[in-house]
Amino acid sequence: MGDTRHTKVLIIGSGPAGYTAGVYAARAMLAPILVQGIEPGGQLTTTTEVENWPGDTQVQGPDLMIRMQEHAKATECEVIGDIITDLDLSKRPFIAKGDSGTTYTADAIILATGARAKWLGLESEEKFKGFGVSACATCDGFFYRGQEIVVVGGGNTAVEEALFLTNFASKVTLIHRRDELRSEKILENRLMKNPKIEPLWFHELVEVTGTEAPLGVEGVRVKHVKTGEITEIPCKGVFIAIGHAPASELVKDTLATHMGGYVKVKPGGTETSVPGVFAAGDLTDHIYRQAVTSAGMGCMAALDAERFLAEQADT
After folding, report:
1. How high is the pLDDT of residue 46?
2. What is the pLDDT of residues 187-213, one digit of tens each?
3. 83 and 174 in contact (C-beta within 8 Å)?
4. Exposed/middle/buried for 315, CB within 10 Å: 0-12, 13-18, 19+?
5. CA nearest to 222, candidates 293, 263, 174
6. Is the entire prediction scored with pTM above 0.90?
7. Do the Cβ atoms of 68 and 112 come closer than 8 Å?
8. Which of 267, 262, 238 is nearest to 251 (CA)?
9. How far is CA 297 from CA 258, 262, 283, in A?
10. What pLDDT is stored for residue 48 in this prediction?
């Protein structure tokens, strides 16, 4: 039988949204508990150089997340290394079950479980993640100025990434399994008119190749889906753009979602379909997916939770 812990605010998730919510909730004297989840620090822990975090010309992703964690702890937000496996939102206080056996009860909950980029599942893709393989053009495109780049995918995400990368790359090869895109027509038109982008139809990525010491991408091998013919393409960066999946498994049956599982929040706020439950960051955001916007939403969620609890105390 595990322990039971009660808190006014339980924060589930530990990326920029979660840690920022922890700072603000702690400063509001709500004594929050933050449960880090399966990937402490979130997606930024798999990113190397970050150059778009305000105040840091360049910072390593894992270092930035350690700093955020320490900031949250310094404000007396309790940070716990546990994973929430079950969440009961049917009554208050809400009940969360931890993998450690601990049960957490809370008067308000802030969900900040983020989203995960979809990957192809190749061994070579995993090997070069952060060393030439990325799923975020706005995060990493800057590092490939004057280089040749490959983008994999055929939907809005892939086309937007390819167009963005032309700001830096000398050439962008878009690899797609079909001979037509699934993106919006206006995006497709922009892509087809861009002289830096070369679509490669009916192909799929089968291997990323590169150097060992230091680790770095040098090219890809692609296979024609009809003939099976293998082609090698030299490149310095590989961007996997086959979409993102929100980490909403805990609440997909209890909270309103949209756009393929993203938690729906009140426009301009963080309130979900259940009073007292707030959501922030990439879990709710299918558009921007940036650390700075996630942090902003974490702030909003903590302030919304503080307001909610004050209103409950008055009734």
Report:
1. 67
2. 999 999 999 999 999 999 999 999 998
3. no
4. exposed
5. 174
6. no
7. no
8. 262
9. 18, 14, 11
10. 63
- Kindly state the DSSP code that residue 113 receives in the 8-state scheme: -
**Mean pLDDT within 77-89:** 97
CA distance 248 to 37: 13
Four-CA torsion 77, 81, 82, 83, nearest 10 degrees: 90
Best CA proximity match to 149, nearest among 168, 135, 130, 136: 168
pLDDT class of 313 with cuts at 50, 70, 90: confident
Provide the pLDDT for residue 224: 97
- Spell out the domains of the chain, with CATH numbers in brackets: 4-116+244-314 (3.50.50.60), 119-240 (3.50.50.60)
**Amino acid present at 62:** P
The catalytic site residues sit at 136, 139-140
Q: Which two tokens stand for residue 94?
A: 């809400």
